[in-house]
Structure formats: C-alpha cells, structure tokens
Design brief:
single chain; alpha/beta; Rossmann fold; Dehydroquinate synthase-like, alpha domain; 2 domains; six-stranded parallel beta sheet; two-stranded antiparallel ribbon; 8 strands
C-alpha cells in the first residue's frame, strides 16, 4: 500500500502574457506593496516598469527595494525589512531570479518579526508566525523553483555561512510564471539556473521522502531539461523553449517543496557561503559528476533511469552499468552547456578544501543522499573536483 502527504498552497498562474494579471492578483492582499528586485538594468527595466504600471493602475502604492544581490545577505534583507516597515507594506512582490524571490520571502518575515531573518532559520526554536507578509513571486529565470517553495536561502558574510529559512508561511500566495520574462536571460545564466533545476528534481527523486507523486513531477522535469536546456542556451529568444524550461523549473520546485535536496546541495550551499561570488548552479555543476561516480552504487535503479534519459543507448546495458555511466553523462551535459569548471577555476582555495568539507556537513542535506558520506569522503570528492 502507498502512503504519502503532499502540500502546495501556492496558486500558480502559468503562461505567456500572464504578467498582465499581477494587478488583479495583488489587490487581494492590500494597497501597499513592497516590490523587491535587483538594481535595474537595461534588459530588466521593461518588465520592472510594466509591473509598476499595472499595480499603479489598480491604485496600489508601490515602494521599490532594488538592492538584491546574488546569494542575498542578512544586511540586504534587514534593509528591505526596514523599508517595508517604514512604508507600512501590506504585501511583498519578489520579481526576478531566486535571489529576488528569496529576499522577498525573508523580508516578509523580517518586516513583521523581532530581530533579523537569521533568527528564524529552519532549525531555530522560534519560527515565523502568521504576521508574515503575503508574498507574490514572479520569476524571471528558470532554475531555483523558489516561487513554489517554503524556503528562503540567506548568507551571513561574517560567519561565511549560507543557511535557510524553511516554513510553510514562506510559500508565496501566488506565483505568476510568464515565460516571456525569461526571453532576455543570457545563455550562461540560462545554463546555470537550468542545471540547478535539474539538480532539484534529481535530488528530490533520490531523497527518501520521494513519493509516487514527486517521482512523476521530478522525472518529467528531468526529461524536459535533458531534452531542451541545451537548445534554450543556444536559442535564448525562443518562447517555446522558455515555456518548457519555465514548466520544468516549476516542476522542480514542486518536487523539493515536499521532498528535499541531498549531498550536492549541501556542498554547493557551503561553497556559496565561503565564496559568494560563485553562482549556485555553477557550484553544483563543479561537483556533480564526481558525487555521482562516488555514490551511484547506493541507488542503482534511480541512477540508471536518469542516465538513460541522458543517453537512451544505455537501455541496452545493465542497470549497474548505466548507473555507473551517469557521472560521465552529466559531465558531458555540463560541458555542452558551457559550465564545466573545476573548483580551482571557480576560485576555491585548495588549503580551504577541508573547511569546505566540514561546512558541507552542517546542513542536513547530506543525510538525505542514498549514500551518507563521512567527512573524509567529502574531502575526497572535493579533491577530485578541484
């Protein structure tokens, strides 16, 4: 018999041109909106101006917080929370990639609770309450899945530590997923965010919490990414391809919301904490093949299935052979995407590999992997990837 739970409170508004509905969606939550984005740049400005215009036509007052940075920090979130309180924001919109949406989520907590967002990390006794501001998420990349999850990732530069808030109150009330917003995303960011979505789906599939429901979502996501991500990198202005990747990203987010990530994300999170300049998807790409080679024996059937998505000719060999081949297949995929880089090339310092290994085991992600590694084994994997 099968037993599982699945929870997803976010209303998903999906499709090209759906951004026009942001005003109708937003007026459910109040008349004072804090709009959270990165600093405006040429390609992003039309989308930003359009959101502001639609909201104002609905007579919604907008305050714009435009200080989001990659791997958002406590300081940035706190500044946004102060602005939200001063403005008396009734809800928050995160417009942009995962960093903007995560920042919006953390601001929604920080604006209405004592202390900083760092006081409400997933393992703290004190958790966000129902005072958390409503969140509307509008992704402009296809990779993090943050628009449909209860997680907000935040960095503490002083501690060189990256951690997360995780609470059901951080699920966006509404996610507007409009593939037209991804058309200006450059090839490199298309590749690293797309690979991040691949990792979300694969690790959700590997996780012990994977249910038959999540398996369907995750495998469809993996199929779409394997089939379409390289083409999207090469044809970034194709709306048809952007639509497929936006759906894959959403499927990946729906997967991790009720499963979780595993060892590779534990390492990549630690890497971004120590080296904030490294994009999250790039960090994953640098260690994925070696992790696959080291751990495939502990989940042969699942590794084999994903290897055959990458290379259908592996259907002619045994599951064990196909599973063993997955590391090489992923390395080829990563190279095709143009994001194959060693840890050394990313600026990781060799003398800090032991520190990185230790930090990789702080978050519980590694315990979800089919093979639970020791500290010495993480060091071995990192030296292979270096």
């Amino acid at each position: 018999m099968i037993f599982f739970n699945y929870f997803q409170p976010t209303v998903i508004i999906f499709g090209a041109g759906r951004l026009k509905e942001v005003g109708e969606v937003s007026e459910r939550f109040g008349r004072r909106c804090l709009l959270v984005t990165v600093p405006p740049f040429l390609e992003f400005k039309p989308s930003l101006d359009r959101v502001k215009s639609i909201l104002r036509r609905k007579k919604i007052e907008v305050e714009h917080f435009d200080r989001v940075v990659p791997n958002p920090t406590i300081e940035v979130v706190s500044a946004g929370a102060r602005l939200a309180r001063t403005f008396r924001a009734e809800f928050v919109i995160g417009l942009g990639g995962g960093s903007s949406i995560d920042t919006a989520k953390a601001i929604a907590v920080g604006a209405t609770h004592k202390g900083t967002c760092w006081d409400y990390l997933y393992f703290r006794k004190t958790q966000p309450t129902d005072r958390t501001l409503p969140i509307v998420a509008i992704p402009t990349t296809s990779g993090t899945g943050s628009h449909v999850t209860q997680v907000a990732v935040v960095t503490n530069p002083e501690e060189r530590n990256k951690s997360a808030l995780s609470n059901s109150r951080l699920f966006p009330r509404v996610a507007i997923v409009d593939p037209e917003l991804m058309l200006t995303l450059p090839p490199y960011m298309t590749a690293v965010t797309g690979f991040d979505a691949f990792c979300h789906a694969f690790e959700s599939y590997l996780n012990p919490r994977c249910s038959p429901y999540i398996e369907v979502l995750a495998l469809e996501c993996l199929r779409l990414i394997v089939k379409h991500l390289t083409d999207t990198v090469n044809k970034p202005s194709s709306l048809e391809l952007r639509e497929k990747m936006a759906w894959a990203d959403t499927l990946a987010g729906l997967s991790i919301a009720n499963s979780a990530v595993t060892l590779p994300h534990g390492i990549a999170m630690a890497m971004s904490g120590l080296y904030p300049q490294v994009a999250h998807g790039q960090a994953l790409a640098s260690v994925y093949p070696d992790i696959m080679r080291y751990t495939y024996k502990s989940a042969i059937e699942k590794f084999a299935k994903v290897a055959r998505l990458q290379n259908p000719s592996l259907s002619a060999v045994s599951d064990k052979q196909a599973a063993r081949q997955l590391g090489d297949e992923l390395e080829n995929f990563i190279e095709t995407l143009g994001i194959k880089k060693s840890l050394k090339e990313l600026g990781v310092i060799e003398s800090e590999l032991s520190l990185l290994a230790k930090a990789s085991l702080v978050l519980p992600d590694y315990k979800n992997h089919p093979y639970v590694v020791s500290l010495e084994e993480v060091k071995k994997i990192l030296y292979e990837s270096f």
